[in-house]
Write the structure tokens for this entry.
Amino acid sequence: MLNTPGPTPTATSPAPSVHAVGVSNDEFRAAMSRLAAGVVLMTAHEPQSDPDGPSGEDIGMTATSFMSVSLDPPLVLVGLREGSRMDDLLDDQPLWAVSFLSEKQSSVASRFAMKNRISDRLLFVDVPYVRGAVSGAPLLEGALATLECRTEQRVTAGDHTLVIGRVLTSAQPGPEAGPLAYFRGRYRQLG
């Protein structure tokens, strides 16, 4: 067998991260970007930690790794980056909500997808919502559908936590509109 050397990485171009099976992070990311996904806003209410302090804070994050798991009982699954604020919160308290974003809510999706943000409180300013009766979490007005959930199971999967939630309430508050989709690194509209 002839052994020919491949290109040598230079100091200015680091070698791509390759896993034991040979797929690099960049190759995997490029492949997965070609799978269209629905976009949801996941929310939870962080309870008041100090009885004399503020009343708690609303937490929100944009997610594209959301899916239905079971009809009986009604279960859904969302993937959270391990150690994220939402992951840490749901490790302590089990109630959360999801708003399915419409094609008109891409600015909301972008706002809650920001990295290294200082305060979730500022993100909810000017975003119309109602508070869920069961979860206490924000449910977006104009969303295609909303769910309130209670965590049933948490599963560590690589650098993420898969949270399986039992659906406690379901509503379709928004107008008949198209869904917001995520494809090849951008928010898209169907049609």
Observations:
- The longest helix spans residues 25-32.
- The chain has a mean pLDDT of 85.
- DSSP finds four helices and twelve strands in the chain.
